[in-house]
């Protein structure tokens, strides 16, 4: 049957998922509407604000600029794969401790971007931390407390090996 | 370890004043929050909106025939389809010479700005709805327009609302003493033209609405990303002809507002009409382009102002003529006077100035309406006043901190009535100035600046002092004579049969952390533990009258209502406990959910008291039994003065004209602090927005009436590399006659920042004799200022 749809198979937060989707369907819409993972937010649809950030095979990506079919065969991690209200992930806990969020809308994307930063970026100076965070816009916090949280996480992690 | 002795009430640890981590964090951190776009309902339809691409035009015809070819399309509506089904929202006012433009769900007959909603497409998916949009043909007949306020204000300018008979829909003047005479005789005067261009509030979540029609109860529920659900309920029930019990307005998790979501929007009306008409749930979520194009915008006044002063730097008189560009509509409920009139009401700032004349004209132009944006009016008025103050200091060779010290209202002058009639009372005006200067060691900072300058660097220091009125009570309206009361707030607190405390409010937290701070107050005042409290807010059905969270009011009014209601409820709990414990209520107290007696070893948990009241018949005599519920309303009447001084040092790159902020300190008095962590967060965020307004953010409409900014790549919001570390000094001045002693503080940062940066930039460019009077000071604007200065320098040599 040619309904114009394409089959896509990917891993989302460790779970295998197969769906038929329109080729134009954005990964953000796929996660939010097909899978009900509404923790990934859409703020600008242009890849500018970073609210929709997820990781694809461990590297941060804009799910609003990625088609679901492009993620075929990949491992997608979303905020739902981080931690739960009862058991926050380390990054989530650092945000909680340092008041790194207010309205919470940019937070999932920010956390997913930081998950990548902690794995792949030096983050030894505030300059590097600010640079690393500059792809994610937060309108509430002025970044001050987010930087504090990342400072703590980077210190805990130590230098990249 | 010995247990602390809390028998003395004053020794007990209080939650108010502590850095309590936020209870709302857990859901928001884990993606389990629920914003409107996260909501699903069976059979839900999606709306996409075709917006005007014309600034001012008559709608000749709309042809949607081809749109129906798109798979998934359900219906297409224009305003003619809703005739007789709704009344417009009219932002009335008692102001003289005011015209209240009606707000309809879609354009009616003509369009008045690029981005105005014209046609609604309803489809099974958002993708289908957007596909269909492109197949709608709208024929317009272009009408003349004046896009700039200086043109729109002229007598022969084309009219945007013919019914008004003029584009000038607001006129207001405040006068005290013979200001012209003061200017004639004053030793010195300075003056200039000051301007903050248009901004977009730009919360990260775009506006999102979902309406559901309940056939069984013939009622509507609107889920909206609004910070004023109560106001929306009140006005929409009238517009839609529903009694208020047929309309519930709920603001679930809301992804920021900063004022942008604090007015009624036609799209809110639209989804309600569609849900009722189609008898299916209907969702509309704006995309970023739509919110940049059609969310209420900020500022945009042209301020001509002058200050008269004597040889010692004492201010003698101030006069200003302001033209506010209010856009195409007067916004509901605030009216176009909200932003504009506040510019002249707050222009004299925290200073003692006897003679004043401030005039404003608010003029219609084909742009989105201006509305509330964090700081409202005062970022503009503070820019003008603080620039004048610095110009005066420079004129007589006085230090900018010293001239402020000489003119700030002194403690002995409180309550001080400003010329426009605002009463400043007991706020730490001067302590804030000293606090900022001490924090950065002002004398050393000046030396550091001078050393850097000696190296040829463009470094400058800027100060801005201001005062704001927060937590406004019923005595004053946030805009003169507008259609709603914003001066009261109600709390309804009940203890159920299991001892759980439910505290319901009319406020609508959207990032402020009110679920935490209000619970802190209730816990302290009622004597229960935080964990036993559920705070409900953002729902029009919770309390009889509510408006929402805006205007730095929720800590003052919501907090005050929480305290008053908790005290009443505590008296009931103790009265019931006294019966149960056979004690005198005066001998009992309750702390962390445990009622204890000062005269015996007896104690009871709150749960035991509640169970006895509700479930254990006979333990309390019938005629003495009362429900453990209370509801009270708090009205701070005048409101509270909040003051602050910002001090910063920055550097301009002579190659790129980029600005780097080297130091930033905010010294502020917001009274008693409920949660220092949250207060600091509010200051950081507001300063960041102030930095955006000062250096980056600008909505530009070109001569054709088109907005040049179409995405966040054009409308630049500050990112982490733009914001410095922000130092904060808190001065908690005591506030008499105020429940709780709280002052509002959510907006302040945006008020002082643009002015302090403008003053610092002017200082940094002082060798070129440049005044930075228009913001944002983008690299382009700074380059032009420097180029003009150098050209005229050469010309005079």
From TrEMBL, chain A:
<keyword id="KW-0479">Metal-binding</keyword>
<dbReference type="InterPro" id="IPR036884">
    <property type="entry name" value="2Fe-2S-bd_dom_sf"/>
</dbReference>
<keyword id="KW-0408">Iron</keyword>
<dbReference type="GO" id="GO:0016491">
    <property type="term" value="F:oxidoreductase activity"/>
</dbReference>
<dbReference type="Pfam" id="PF00111">
    <property type="entry name" value="Fer2"/>
</dbReference>
<dbReference type="GO" id="GO:0051537">
    <property type="term" value="F:2 iron, 2 sulfur cluster binding"/>
</dbReference>
<dbReference type="InterPro" id="IPR001041">
    <property type="entry name" value="2Fe-2S_ferredoxin-type"/>
</dbReference>
<dbReference type="InterPro" id="IPR036010">
    <property type="entry name" value="2Fe-2S_ferredoxin-like_sf"/>
</dbReference>
<feature type="domain" description="2Fe-2S ferredoxin-type">
    <location>
        <begin position="6"/>
        <end position="82"/>
    </location>
</feature>
<dbReference type="InterPro" id="IPR012675">
    <property type="entry name" value="Beta-grasp_dom_sf"/>
</dbReference>
<keyword id="KW-0411">Iron-sulfur</keyword>
<dbReference type="InterPro" id="IPR006058">
    <property type="entry name" value="2Fe2S_fd_BS"/>
</dbReference>
<dbReference type="Pfam" id="PF01799">
    <property type="entry name" value="Fer2_2"/>
</dbReference>
<dbReference type="InterPro" id="IPR002888">
    <property type="entry name" value="2Fe-2S-bd"/>
</dbReference>
<dbReference type="GO" id="GO:0046872">
    <property type="term" value="F:metal ion binding"/>
</dbReference>
<dbReference type="InterPro" id="IPR051452">
    <property type="entry name" value="Diverse_Oxidoreductases"/>
</dbReference>
<protein>
    <submittedName>
        <fullName>(2Fe-2S)-binding protein</fullName>
    </submittedName>
</protein>
<keyword id="KW-0560">Oxidoreductase</keyword>
<keyword id="KW-0001">2Fe-2S</keyword>
UniProtKB/TrEMBL annotation, chain B:
<feature type="domain" description="Aldehyde oxidase/xanthine dehydrogenase a/b hammerhead">
    <location>
        <begin position="30"/>
        <end position="144"/>
    </location>
</feature>
<dbReference type="InterPro" id="IPR016208">
    <property type="entry name" value="Ald_Oxase/xanthine_DH-like"/>
</dbReference>
<protein>
    <submittedName>
        <fullName>Xanthine dehydrogenase family protein</fullName>
    </submittedName>
</protein>
<dbReference type="Pfam" id="PF02738">
    <property type="entry name" value="MoCoBD_1"/>
</dbReference>
<keyword id="KW-0500">Molybdenum</keyword>
<dbReference type="InterPro" id="IPR036856">
    <property type="entry name" value="Ald_Oxase/Xan_DH_a/b_sf"/>
</dbReference>
<dbReference type="Pfam" id="PF01315">
    <property type="entry name" value="Ald_Xan_dh_C"/>
</dbReference>
<keyword id="KW-0560">Oxidoreductase</keyword>
<dbReference type="GO" id="GO:0005506">
    <property type="term" value="F:iron ion binding"/>
</dbReference>
<dbReference type="InterPro" id="IPR037165">
    <property type="entry name" value="AldOxase/xan_DH_Mopterin-bd_sf"/>
</dbReference>
<dbReference type="InterPro" id="IPR008274">
    <property type="entry name" value="AldOxase/xan_DH_MoCoBD1"/>
</dbReference>
<dbReference type="GO" id="GO:0016491">
    <property type="term" value="F:oxidoreductase activity"/>
</dbReference>
<dbReference type="InterPro" id="IPR046867">
    <property type="entry name" value="AldOxase/xan_DH_MoCoBD2"/>
</dbReference>
<dbReference type="Pfam" id="PF20256">
    <property type="entry name" value="MoCoBD_2"/>
</dbReference>
<dbReference type="InterPro" id="IPR000674">
    <property type="entry name" value="Ald_Oxase/Xan_DH_a/b"/>
</dbReference>
């Amino acid at each position: 049957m040619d309904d114009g749809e394409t089959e896509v198979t990917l891993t989302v937060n460790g779970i295998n998922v197969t769906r038929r989707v329109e080729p134009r369907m954005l990964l953000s819409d796929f996660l939010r509407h097909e899978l009900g993972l509404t923790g990934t937010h859409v703020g600008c649809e242009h890849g500018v604000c970073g609210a929709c950030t997820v990781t694809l095979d461990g590297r941060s990506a804009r799910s609003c600029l990625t088609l679901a079919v492009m993620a075929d065969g990949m491992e997608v991690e979303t905020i739902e794969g981080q931690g739960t209200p009862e058991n926050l992930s380390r990054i989530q806990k650092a945000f909680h401790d340092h008041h790194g969020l207010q309205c919470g809308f940019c937070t999932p994307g920010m956390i997913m971007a930081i998950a990548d930063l902690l794995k792949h970026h030096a983050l030894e100076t505030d300059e590097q931390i600010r640079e690393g965070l500059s792809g994610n816009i937060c309108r509430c916090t002025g970044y001050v407390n987010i930087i504090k949280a990342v400072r703590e996480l980077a210190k805990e992690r130590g230098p990249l090996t | 370890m010995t247990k602390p002795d809390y028998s003395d009430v004053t020794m007990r640890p209080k939650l108010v004043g502590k850095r309590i981590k936020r209870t709302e964090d857990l859901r928001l951190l884990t993606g389990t929050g629920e914003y409107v776009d996260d909501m699903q309902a069976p059979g839900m339809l999606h709306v996409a909106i075709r917006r005007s691409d014309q600034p001012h035009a008559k709608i000749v015809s709309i042809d949607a025939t081809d749109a129906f070819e798109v798979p998934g399309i359900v219906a297409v509506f224009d305003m003619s389809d809703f005739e007789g089904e709704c009344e417009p929202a009219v932002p009335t006012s008692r102001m003289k010479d005011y015209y209240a433009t009606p707000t309809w769900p879609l354009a009616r007959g003509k369009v008045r700005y690029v981005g105005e909603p014209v046609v609604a497409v309803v489809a099974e998916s958002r993708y289908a709805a957007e596909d269909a949009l492109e197949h709608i043909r709208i024929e317009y007949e272009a009408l003349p327009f004046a896009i700039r306020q200086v043109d729109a204000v002229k007598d022969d300018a084309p009219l945007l609302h013919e019914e008004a008979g003029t584009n000038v829909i607001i006129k207001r003047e405040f006068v005290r003493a013979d200001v012209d005479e003061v200017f004639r005789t004053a030793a010195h005067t300075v003056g200039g033209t000051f301007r903050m261009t248009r901004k977009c509030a730009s919360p990260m979540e775009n506006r999102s609405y979902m309406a559901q029609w309940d056939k069984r109860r013939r009622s509507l529920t609107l889920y909206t990303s609004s910070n004023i659900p109560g106001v929306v309920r009140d006005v929409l029930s009238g517009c839609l002809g529903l009694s208020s019990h047929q309309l519930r307005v709920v603001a679930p998790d809301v992804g920021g507002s900063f004022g942008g979501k604090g007015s009624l929007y036609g799209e809110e009306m639209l989804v309600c009409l569609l849900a009722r008409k189609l008898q299916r749930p209907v969702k509309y979520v704006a995309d970023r382009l739509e919110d940049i194009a059609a969310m209420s915008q900020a500022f945009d006044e042209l301020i001509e102002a002058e200050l008269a002063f004597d040889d010692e730097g004492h201010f003698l008189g101030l006069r200003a003529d302001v033209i506010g560009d209010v856009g195409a509509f007067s916004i509901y409920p605030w009216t176009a006077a909200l932003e504009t009139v506040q510019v002249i009401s707050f222009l004299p700032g925290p200073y003692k100035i006897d003679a004043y004349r401030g005039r404003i004209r608010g003029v219609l132009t084909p742009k989105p309406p201006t509305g509330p944006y964090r700081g409202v009016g005062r970022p503009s008025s503070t820019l003008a006043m603080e620039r004048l103050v610095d110009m005066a200091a420079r004129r007589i060779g006085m230090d900018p901190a010293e001239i402020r010290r000489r003119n700030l209202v002194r403690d002995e002058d409180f309550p001080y009535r400003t010329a426009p009639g605002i009463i400043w009372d007991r706020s730490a005006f001067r302590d804030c100035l000293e606090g900022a200067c001490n924090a950065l060691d002002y004398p050393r900072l000046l030396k550091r600046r001078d050393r850097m300058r000696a190296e040829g660097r463009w470094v400058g220091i800027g100060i801005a002092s201001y005062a704001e009125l927060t937590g406004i009570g019923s005595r004053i309206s946030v805009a003169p004579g507008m259609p709603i009361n914003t001066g009261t707030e109600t709390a309804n607190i009940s203890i159920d049969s299991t001892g759980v405390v439910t505290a319901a409010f009319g406020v609508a937290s959207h990032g402020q952390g009110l679920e935490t701070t209000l619970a802190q107050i209730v816990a302290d005042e009622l004597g229960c533990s935080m964990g036993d409290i559920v705070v409900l807010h953002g729902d029009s059905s919770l309390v009889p009258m509510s408006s929402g969270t805006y205007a730095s009011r929720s800590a003052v009014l919501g907090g005050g209502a929480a305290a008053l209601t908790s005290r009443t409820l505590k008296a009931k709990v103790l009265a019931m406990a006294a019966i149960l414990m056979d004690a005198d209520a005066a001998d009992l107290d309750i702390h962390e959910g445990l009622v204890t007696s000062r005269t015996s070893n007896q104690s009871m948990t709150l749960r035991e008291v509640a169970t006895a009241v509700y479930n254990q018949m006979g333990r309390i005599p019938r005629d003495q039994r009362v429900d453990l519920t209370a509801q009270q309303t708090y009205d701070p009447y005048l409101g509270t003065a909040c003051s602050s001084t910002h001090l910063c040092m920055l550097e301009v790159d002579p190659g790129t004209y980029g600005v780097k902020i080297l130091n930033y300190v905010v010294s502020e008095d917001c009274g008693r602090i409920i949660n220092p962590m949250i207060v600091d967060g509010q200051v950081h965020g507001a300063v960041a927005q102030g930095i955006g307004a000062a250096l980056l953010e600008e909505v530009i409409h070109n001569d054709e009436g088109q907005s040049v900014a179409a995405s966040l790549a054009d409308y630049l919001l500050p990112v982490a590399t733009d914001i410095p570390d922000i130092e904060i000094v808190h001065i908690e001045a005591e506030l008499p006659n105020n429940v709780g002693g709280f002052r509002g503080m959510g907006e302040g940062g945006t008020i002082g920042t643009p002015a302090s940066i403008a003053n610092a930039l002017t200082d940094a460019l002082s060798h070129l004799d440049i005044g930075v009077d228009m913001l944002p000071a983008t690299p382009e604007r700074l380059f032009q200022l420097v180029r003009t200065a150098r050209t005229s320098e050469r010309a005079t040599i």
